[in-house]
């Protein structure tokens, strides 16, 4: 892997350079407390020290709503509305979210390629950014706190700039083509990088790893936590809609008034909703709120072969953005029992 | 999705025109106004034959058979009730449109707290009015309703969706998830979390694309409760209670558009204990 340094005074210029290559998105403050990935007009608006975004980066490849095809009933034809393949650059993605994207790839590319996702993903550049955890983060126990794949460049904070890890050929070319922004790293930079990582590691509120969490949960499906906590749940779906690895969607046909055609749209769905478990004939395989609540806990703790991690990457969004203040990490630890690393 | 238990409207194209009626009981006429001013109103008017639509034509009749009846307003007088029964008798499909027809509307706020006679006396004293009044109620308290198109007023895209699916020989899919879902899809921050706003988004059925939170205003629940008992008033009341809101405030707010939800009182009692 190649390492270079991006000095602090060159950051804005580098962002300008990225912006000239396509549409640049990055973390922005959208309200008093929250951040989101938004298109960057003025590079000074980029927030380098954000905790988490309210919408996960999967939205760039699997948008909240999209038309997948239009149909013509007279000629009995469908016309796919594939994305255009414009270059997009996502700046400032944290490690957990990068693993989240690889998890999305495993389902939307490896399994059965979804052209809408794939085209966008192939045209995306991912620039990672280091972070310091807050009390909601638990990527450490998910083994997603440090990524070795899934980014083109990864920026690690130094006192006077960033140590840049180069992850792909695209990332390499980015640096080759703009050498004026980068420097060789010094031994001091290496020390500072190590110091940052040590400090960061000590800040996590849970330590060790949760590789066996899935089994602990499966062995205690009747744990009283589920009843108690699902009773507080609003069934609002915020926990899944903000999650970087939720993949469920709903499709709907919108015919035109004259019946000559229409479009099929897909939009994000959530297993916290009744209709998610509703099948033909009116049967619902998750009839109660508790069934739906339990489903998310199982789904997120299942094992993804591609990343060899759980589907949950420990970003903390499902707790941070839960209006009912339901604590995912604490609830998992409760079922796990002693030794969960807290 | 279960199949509808009404006659499917035949797809017409250029051979026939579906007949449609837009009826009104006790309401503000806002739903009709939205229906009459949809962007594609001329296209709609060419495709269907309106037998009744007071906002658009004085040649409106209650007594003609129609394929689709859109009923606005709550049942608040005996006259409303008679008309509603007549509409139901003449229609293949009945759609309740707007907060009043779907959930009783703001005029049903006192449901469960005051009875009709007390209300009447406090407004009219001893004077007489032409029609005997009734406690304001949603239309499905009296007749079978095939579809619900909520909103105060309803959204244009939903009106068009309902019409298009009916004319297509199909039917509209029901929404059974809350405003919060659309609030996320719109990319808003959450004002309930961020500034403890008394947002009813979590218990209110989606479809408005989180209109109010998108303007930084907490949802007041105008679209009514999430259907199929999935409006978790208890969980939301607990959330509000933990933020310091009083029982009365929470109950009053939830009752504005949800007074007819059969779970409301019971779920509130779960959090606050029995009401006196
Ligand atoms: S089932 Fe639920 S938790 Fe799993 S991906 Fe779908 S929405 Fe997310
Ligand atoms: S389950 Fe929660 S903590 Fe885990 S990845 Fe999803 S939002 Fe983040
Ligand atoms: S965000 Fe919280 S309240 Fe909403 S569905 Fe998820 S756990 Fe339940
Ligand atoms: S602002 Fe209201 S509607 Fe939006 S997510 Fe929060 S509670 Fe739900
Ligand atoms: S956000 Fe709530 S009050 Fe506003 S339009 Fe939607 S349902 Fe009605």
Structure in words:
The complex is a heterodimer of chains A (342) and B (276). With 342 residues, chain A is of the alpha+beta class. Chain A has helices at residues 11-19, 95-111, 115-122, 139-142, 169-177, 187-203, 213-218, 224-232, 238-241, 289-301, 317-320, 328-336; strands at 2-7, 23-29, 35-39, 65-72, 77-80, 88-93, 124-129, 153-158, 161-166, 249-255, 261-268, 303-304, 309-310. Chain A has a 7-stranded mixed beta sheet. Chain A has a 4-stranded antiparallel beta sheet with strand order 5-4-11-10, with no helix packed on it. A two-stranded antiparallel ribbon of chain A has the order 12-13. In chain A, a hairpin with a 2-residue loop joins strand 8 and strand 9. In chain A, helix 8 (224-232) crosses helix 10. The mean pLDDT of chain A is 96. Chain B has 276 residues and is α/β, with parallel strands linked by helices. Chain B has 2 domains: 18-167, NADH:ubiquinone oxidoreductase-like, 20kDa subunit (Rossmann fold); 179-271, no CATH class. Chain B has 11 helices and 7 strands. In chain B, helix 9 (233-242) runs antiparallel to helix 10, helix 9 packs parallel to helix 11 (264-272) and helix 10 packs antiparallel against helix 11. The chains are: A alpha+beta (342), B alpha/beta (276). Chains A and B meet through strand 10 and strand 11 of A and helix 2, helix 6, helix 7, helix 8 and helix 9 of B. The complex binds iron/sulfur cluster (5 copies).
């Amino acid at each position: 892997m190649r390492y270079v340094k991006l000095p602090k005074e060159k950051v804005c210029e580098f962002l300008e350079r990225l912006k000239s290559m396509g549409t640049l998105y990055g973390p922005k403050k959208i309200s008093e407390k929250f951040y989101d990935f938004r298109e960057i007009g003025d590079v000074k608006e980029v927030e380098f020290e954000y905790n988490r975004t309210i919408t996960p980066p999967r939205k760039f490849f699997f948008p909240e709503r999209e038309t997948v095809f239009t149909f013509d009933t007279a000629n009995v034809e469908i016309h796919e509305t594939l994305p255009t393949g414009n270059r997009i650059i996502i700046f400032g993605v944290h490690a957990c979210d990068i693993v989240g994207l690889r998890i999305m790839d495993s389902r939307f590319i490896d399994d059965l390629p979804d052209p809408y996702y794939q085209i966008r993903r192939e045209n995306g550049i991912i620039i990672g950014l280091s972070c310091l955890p807050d009390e909601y983060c638990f990527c450490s126990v998910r083994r997603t706190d440090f990524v070795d794949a899934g980014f083109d460049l990864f920026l690690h904070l130094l006192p006077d700039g960033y140590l840049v890890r180069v992850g792909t050929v695209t990332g390499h070319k980015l640096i080759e083509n703009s050498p004026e922004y980068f420097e060789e790293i010094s031994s001091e930079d290496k020390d500072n990088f190590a110091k940052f990582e040590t400090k960061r590691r000590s800040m996590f509120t849970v330590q060790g790893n949760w590789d066996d969490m899935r089994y602990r949960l499966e062995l205690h499906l009747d744990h009283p936590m589920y009843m108690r906590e699902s009773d507080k749940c609003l069934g609002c779906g915020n926990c899944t809609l903000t999650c970087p690895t939720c993949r469920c969607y709903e499709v709907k046909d919108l015919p035109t008034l004259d019946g000559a055609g229409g479009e099929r749209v897909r939009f994000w769905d959530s297993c916290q909703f009744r209709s998610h478990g509703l099948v033909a004939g009116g049967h619902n395989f998750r009839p109660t709120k508790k069934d739906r609540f339990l489903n998310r806990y199982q789904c997120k703790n299942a094992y993804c072969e591609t990343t060899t991690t759980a589907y949950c990457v420990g970003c903390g969004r499902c707790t941070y953005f839960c209006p009912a203040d339901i604590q995912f990490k604490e609830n998992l630890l409760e079922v796990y029992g002693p030794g969960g690393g807290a | 999705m279960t199949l509808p238990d009404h006659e499917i409207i035949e797809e017409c194209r250029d051979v026939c025109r579906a007949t449609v009626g837009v009826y009104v009981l006790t309401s503000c006429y806002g739903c009709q106004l939205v229906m009459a001013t949809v962007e594609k109103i001329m296209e709609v008017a060419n495709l269907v034959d309106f037998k009744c639509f007071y906002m658009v034509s004085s040649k409106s009749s209650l007594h003609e058979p129609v394929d689709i009846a859109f009923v606005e307003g709550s049942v608040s007088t005996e006259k409303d009730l008679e008309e509603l029964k007549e509409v139901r008798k003449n229609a293949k499909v009945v759609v309740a449109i707007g907060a009043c027809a779907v959930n009783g509307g703001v005029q049903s706020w006192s449901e469960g707290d005051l009875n009709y006679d007390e209300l009447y006396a406090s407004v009219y004293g001893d004077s007489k009015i032409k029609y005997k009044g009734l406690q304001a109620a949603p239309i499905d308290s009296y007749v079978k309703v095939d579809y619900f198109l909520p909103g105060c007023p309803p959204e244009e895209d939903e009106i068009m969706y309902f019409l298009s699916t009916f004319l297509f020989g199909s039917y509209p899919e029901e929404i059974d998830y809350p405003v919060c879902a659309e609030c996320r899809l719109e990319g808003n921050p959450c004002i309930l979390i961020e500034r403890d706003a008394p947002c009813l988004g979590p218990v209110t059925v989606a479809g408005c694309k989180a209109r109010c939170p998108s303007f930084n205003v907490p949802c007041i629940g105008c679209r009514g409760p999430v259907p199929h008992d999935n409006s978790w008033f208890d969980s939301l009341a607990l959330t509000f209670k933990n933020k310091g809101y009083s029982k009365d405030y929470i109950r009053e707010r939830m009752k504005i558009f949800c007074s007819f939800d059969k779970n409301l009182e019971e779920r509130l009692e779960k959090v606050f204990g029995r009401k006196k």
